[in-house]
Protein backbone atom coordinates (compact mmCIF):
# COMPACT_ATOMS: atom_id res chain seq x y z
CA UNK A 1 0.00 0.00 0.00
CA UNK A 2 1.43 3.36 -1.02
CA UNK A 3 0.82 6.51 0.95
CA UNK A 4 0.84 9.42 -1.46
CA UNK A 5 0.20 12.53 0.61
CA UNK A 6 -0.17 15.98 -0.82
CA UNK A 7 3.45 17.21 -1.09
CA UNK A 8 2.74 20.29 1.04
CA UNK A 9 1.34 18.12 3.86
CA UNK A 10 4.23 15.65 3.64
CA UNK A 11 6.94 18.25 3.72
CA UNK A 12 10.37 18.30 2.12
CA UNK A 13 11.38 14.79 3.27
CA UNK A 14 8.76 13.21 0.98
CA UNK A 15 10.97 12.35 -2.00
CA UNK A 16 9.57 9.49 -4.09
CA UNK A 17 11.98 7.59 -6.35
CA UNK A 18 13.83 8.88 -8.38
CA UNK A 19 13.63 12.38 -6.89
CA UNK A 20 17.05 13.30 -5.46
CA UNK A 21 17.47 13.73 -1.73
CA UNK A 22 19.92 16.56 -2.25
CA UNK A 23 18.70 20.16 -2.62
CA UNK A 24 15.38 21.86 -2.05
CA UNK A 25 15.63 22.11 1.74
CA UNK A 26 14.30 25.09 3.75
CA UNK A 27 16.73 27.93 4.39
CA UNK A 28 18.05 28.50 7.91
CA UNK A 29 18.24 24.83 8.90
CA UNK A 30 21.10 22.38 9.28
CA UNK A 31 20.68 19.80 6.51
CA UNK A 32 21.99 16.24 6.69
CA UNK A 33 21.69 13.91 3.69
CA UNK A 34 23.53 10.60 3.90
CA UNK A 35 23.32 7.39 1.89
CA UNK A 36 25.21 4.14 2.10
CA UNK A 37 25.06 1.14 -0.23
CA UNK A 38 24.48 -2.12 1.60
CA UNK A 39 26.14 -5.04 -0.18
CA UNK A 40 23.82 -8.05 -0.10
CA UNK A 41 23.76 -11.46 -1.78
CA UNK A 42 20.00 -10.99 -2.28
CA UNK A 43 19.33 -7.25 -2.69
CA UNK A 44 15.56 -7.73 -2.96
CA UNK A 45 15.40 -9.57 0.36
CA UNK A 46 17.75 -7.03 1.98
CA UNK A 47 15.55 -4.19 0.74
CA UNK A 48 12.43 -5.84 2.18
CA UNK A 49 14.14 -6.53 5.53
CA UNK A 50 15.33 -2.94 5.74
CA UNK A 51 11.99 -1.44 4.69
CA UNK A 52 10.16 -3.53 7.29
CA UNK A 53 12.67 -2.51 9.97
CA UNK A 54 12.27 1.17 9.13
CA UNK A 55 8.48 1.08 9.02
CA UNK A 56 8.23 -1.11 12.15
CA UNK A 57 10.46 1.15 14.30
CA UNK A 58 13.22 -1.50 14.52
CA UNK A 59 15.75 0.83 12.87
CA UNK A 60 15.30 3.20 15.81
CA UNK A 61 15.36 0.45 18.43
CA UNK A 62 18.44 -1.08 16.80
CA UNK A 63 20.12 2.32 17.11
CA UNK A 64 19.78 2.23 20.88
CA UNK A 65 16.74 4.49 21.02
CA UNK A 66 13.57 3.77 22.98
CA UNK A 67 10.34 4.05 21.02
CA UNK A 68 6.89 4.94 22.33
CA UNK A 69 4.58 4.85 19.32
CA UNK A 70 0.85 4.99 18.65
CA UNK A 71 1.11 1.72 16.76
CA UNK A 72 3.44 -0.95 15.46
CA UNK A 73 4.16 0.85 12.15
CA UNK A 74 5.01 4.30 10.94
CA UNK A 75 1.85 5.52 9.21
CA UNK A 76 0.79 9.08 8.41
CA UNK A 77 -0.57 10.81 11.50
CA UNK A 78 1.02 8.39 13.99
CA UNK A 79 2.78 9.99 16.89
CA UNK A 80 5.99 8.61 18.31
CA UNK A 81 8.34 9.69 21.07
CA UNK A 82 11.95 8.62 20.65
CA UNK A 83 13.98 8.32 23.85
CA UNK A 84 17.62 9.31 23.95
CA UNK A 85 19.73 8.84 27.05
CA UNK A 86 21.45 6.30 29.28
CA UNK A 87 19.67 3.52 31.13
CA UNK A 88 16.43 4.73 32.68
CA UNK A 89 17.33 8.41 32.18
CA UNK A 90 15.77 9.35 28.82
CA UNK A 91 14.65 12.48 27.07
CA UNK A 92 11.72 11.61 24.84
CA UNK A 93 11.45 13.69 21.69
CA UNK A 94 7.89 13.72 20.26
CA UNK A 95 7.32 13.45 16.49
CA UNK A 96 4.43 12.95 14.06
CA UNK A 97 4.72 10.77 10.96
CA UNK A 98 3.94 12.84 7.87
CA UNK A 99 4.20 10.18 5.19
CA UNK A 100 5.08 6.53 4.74
CA UNK A 101 5.69 4.39 1.70
CA UNK A 102 5.46 0.60 1.71
CA UNK A 103 7.55 -1.55 -0.68
CA UNK A 104 6.07 -2.11 -4.14
CA UNK A 105 6.02 -5.80 -5.13
CA UNK A 106 5.55 -7.45 -8.50
CA UNK A 107 3.05 -10.26 -9.20
CA UNK A 108 5.54 -12.83 -7.85
CA UNK A 109 5.89 -10.93 -4.56
CA UNK A 110 9.36 -9.59 -5.35
CA UNK A 111 10.30 -5.93 -4.87
CA UNK A 112 10.27 -3.83 -8.01
CA UNK A 113 13.56 -2.09 -8.81
CA UNK A 114 13.64 1.68 -8.72
CA UNK A 115 11.85 2.52 -5.48
CA UNK A 116 12.08 3.90 -1.98
CA UNK A 117 10.20 2.70 1.08
CA UNK A 118 10.24 4.37 4.45
CA UNK A 119 8.77 7.33 6.27
CA UNK A 120 9.31 10.90 7.34
CA UNK A 121 8.35 12.63 10.54
CA UNK A 122 8.29 16.14 11.96
CA UNK A 123 9.36 17.31 15.39
CA UNK A 124 6.49 18.29 17.71
CA UNK A 125 6.53 20.74 20.63
CA UNK A 126 8.77 19.33 23.35
CA UNK A 127 11.34 18.05 20.83
CA UNK A 128 14.75 19.71 21.22
CA UNK A 129 14.82 20.44 17.48
CA UNK A 130 12.35 21.74 14.94
CA UNK A 131 12.38 20.18 11.48
CA UNK A 132 11.86 16.87 9.73
CA UNK A 133 13.71 13.62 9.12
CA UNK A 134 13.19 10.94 6.49
CA UNK A 135 14.37 7.31 6.55
CA UNK A 136 14.65 5.49 3.24
CA UNK A 137 15.29 1.95 2.05
CA UNK A 138 16.23 2.19 -1.62
CA UNK A 139 16.37 -0.42 -4.37
CA UNK A 140 17.79 0.74 -7.70
CA UNK A 141 16.75 -0.60 -11.08
CA UNK A 142 20.13 -2.38 -11.16
CA UNK A 143 19.35 -4.18 -7.88
CA UNK A 144 21.55 -2.14 -5.49
CA UNK A 145 20.10 -1.69 -2.00
CA UNK A 146 20.97 1.29 0.14
CA UNK A 147 19.88 3.12 3.26
CA UNK A 148 19.49 6.90 3.34
CA UNK A 149 18.63 9.56 5.90
CA UNK A 150 17.65 13.11 4.98
CA UNK A 151 16.89 15.72 7.62
CA UNK A 152 16.73 19.40 8.27
CA UNK A 153 16.67 20.83 11.77
CA UNK A 154 17.50 23.68 14.07
CA UNK A 155 17.32 24.06 17.85
CA UNK A 156 13.75 24.56 19.06
CA UNK A 157 14.62 26.98 21.88
CA UNK A 158 17.15 29.70 22.68
CA UNK A 159 18.69 27.56 25.42
CA UNK A 160 19.27 24.72 22.97
CA UNK A 161 20.75 27.18 20.45
CA UNK A 162 23.45 27.90 23.03
CA UNK A 163 24.18 24.18 23.26
CA UNK A 164 24.02 23.63 19.50
CA UNK A 165 27.45 21.93 19.23
CA UNK A 166 26.38 19.33 21.82
CA UNK A 167 23.00 18.82 20.13
CA UNK A 168 24.71 18.35 16.74
CA UNK A 169 27.17 15.87 18.28
CA UNK A 170 24.24 13.80 19.60
CA UNK A 171 22.58 13.97 16.16
CA UNK A 172 25.78 12.73 14.51
CA UNK A 173 26.08 9.85 16.97
CA UNK A 174 22.47 8.79 16.37
CA UNK A 175 22.89 9.06 12.59
CA UNK A 176 25.96 6.78 12.74
CA UNK A 177 23.93 4.34 14.83
CA UNK A 178 21.11 4.42 12.26
CA UNK A 179 23.56 3.31 9.58
CA UNK A 180 25.02 0.52 11.72
CA UNK A 181 21.50 -0.64 12.57
CA UNK A 182 20.43 -0.50 8.89
CA UNK A 183 23.37 -2.69 7.85
CA UNK A 184 22.42 -5.34 10.45
CA UNK A 185 18.71 -5.19 9.69
CA UNK A 186 19.14 -5.43 5.92
CA UNK A 187 20.83 -8.76 6.59
CA UNK A 188 17.74 -9.96 8.44
CA UNK A 189 19.27 -9.52 11.92
From TrEMBL:
Domain DUF1990, residue spans: 23-180
Protein name: DUF1990 domain-containing protein
The species this protein was found in: Arthrobacter saudimassiliensis
Taxon lineage: Bacteria, Bacillati, Actinomycetota, Actinomycetes, Micrococcales
Amino acid sequence: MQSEPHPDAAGPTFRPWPQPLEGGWPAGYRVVVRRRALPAPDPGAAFLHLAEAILGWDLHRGSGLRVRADGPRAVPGAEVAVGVGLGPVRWYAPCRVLWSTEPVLDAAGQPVGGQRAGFGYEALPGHPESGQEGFYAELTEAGQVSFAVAAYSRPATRVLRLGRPAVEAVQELITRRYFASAARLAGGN
